Structures are given as C-alpha cells and as structure tokens.
Amino acid sequence: MVKNIYFASDFHLGSPDEKTSRVRENRIVRWLNYIEPSCSELFLMGDIFDFWFEYKTVVPKGFVRLLGKLAQMSDQGIKIYFFKGNHDMWVNDYFTKELGIQIISDEFVMERNGKRFYLHHGDGLGPGDRKYKFLRKIFRNPICQWLFSLVPPRIGMGIANGWSSSSRAAGTTRDGVVKEKFMGMGNEWLAVYAKEVLQKTHYDYFIFGHRHLPLDLQLSENSRYVNLGEWLNFYSYAVFDGNELCLNYFESK
Predict the structure, then answer these.
(1) For the chain, what are the domain ranges?
(2) CA 134: distance to chain centroid?
(3) Contact in structure between 185 and 220 (CB atoms under 8 Å)
(4) What confidence score (pLDDT) does residue 60 get?
(5) In terms of DSSP bridges, do strands 205-208 and 115-120 run parallel, antiparallel, or are they unpaired?
(6) 133 CB-near residues (< 8 Å, 6+ apart)
(7) Residue 94 has pLDDT above 80, yes or no
(8) Alpha carbon of 126 to those of 10, 160, 164, 165, 188: distances in Å?
(9) Is 175 exposed, middle or buried (0-12, 13-18, 19+ CB in 10 A)?
C-alpha cells in the first residue's frame, strides 16, 4: 500500500466550550482512524489546542481521546510533527516524552519524493500585523514563559480560558455564516510571503495553517500555496501521495 503524508491544523480544541470541543475531538479521532492505514507521516501544523501551557508537572485537562490516538499511531511507527501555533506556542517537551512527537517551533523545510516543501503555521509571516509580531516575540521569550509558570495553574488556566473565549477561533457569526473570505492573491498575506520566498528558493509546495480558510493557489508554473483551513467549519486537510498534493475535506457538511 502506498503511504501518504497528511497535513492538518487549527483544531482549536477547547473552544468555544467543552461540549462543542468534544464533538470536534471525536470527529478528529475518526479522521485519524480513517487515514491511519495509509499514513507514514502526520503534520499537525499549529493551533491544535485553543490554549496550551506546560507547567513542569502540570498540563491542561482533557483531550485524552486525541492524545491516546496519537500515542497509538506513534507507537506503530507513524512519524508525527507538532507545530507551535499562536494559540499553543507554549508546548515544551511533554508530547515528545509521552508521545514521541517532534516539536517544530517555526518553519520546517523538507524534501519528499523529489518535491520540496516549506511548512509553517503561518503566524507572524508576511506584511502587516506589527502588533502581533511584537507580542509573539514577548510570548515566545523564555523569561516571559518562566514568569507565567510562576502563576498557580488554577489562576493561569483561568486567564487562558478567558483569553480563548475571545479568540478568533470563533470563525462564524451568530447566524452560522463563515467569516473568512478569500481576499484576492495580492491581499492574501501568506501567499505574498510565499512569493517573496520563491524569488530566492524554489519550493513545490508552501503549506500553512493560521488563515482559517482552505486555499489552493498557484504561485508559479510549478509552485503552489496551500492553506489547510480549520476544523470548526471546514474539516479540511491536505494529503501528499508521493506525486501530488491535494486539499480534501472530511465529513464535510
């Protein structure tokens, strides 16, 4: 059987509430069961959790169905990569020690079957958004992370839950209309960033999350930008079969 490489991002587990998140988690586990027989590598490309912070001996409650499934897949020899997103950037070594998952902090460049890939969650890239880029440096600063670790977990998680409830993971309006819309090639900041990188180095595929909108855009004759979308509305993912990269949907509405 041909082994595939799978990419997904922006599950935002924990948002907007426990009940809704559990339904989403169950769907994700069904997807993992579906891809497992053909999967050689799995790239979870950021914002898998709406918030994650690892204290030295404490991690957030919940998500045991997902973590158990990932542990099983890892034990079977499937290589799993976890990218730090803007919501779960405070991942440390828990997933590596317990699940054998490789943690990726920024970009990850690889070649598979003659195709070159540029992978990144997508936050902090491209033009604009200077305020977030400044905050990102603060949030990722080891001293700032150490200072937050001094806050007792009950208080720290309370702060996190308050922050998550106002996050942009809520990608629909009250009447169920998806907020994210395609803004045109010239205004899609990750496509703009990919084109700038492409001027210096060739990549067949640029794959990002963060944007919350599934996109498959042709950058040049032999280079594409794929955004993985999210799992609050689209349930989208990408798969590379050794020849071609495709953007797919799981149990889509």
Answers:
(1) 4-249
(2) 21
(3) no
(4) 79
(5) parallel
(6) 124
(7) yes
(8) 19, 27, 24, 26, 9
(9) exposed
